[in-house]
Amino acid sequence: MNAMDFENISAEAFRQYQKDHRERDYLLVDVRQPEEYITGHIPGSKLVPLDDLESNLGDLPLEK
Question: What are the residues facing 46 on neighbouring strands?
Answer without folding.
Answer: 29
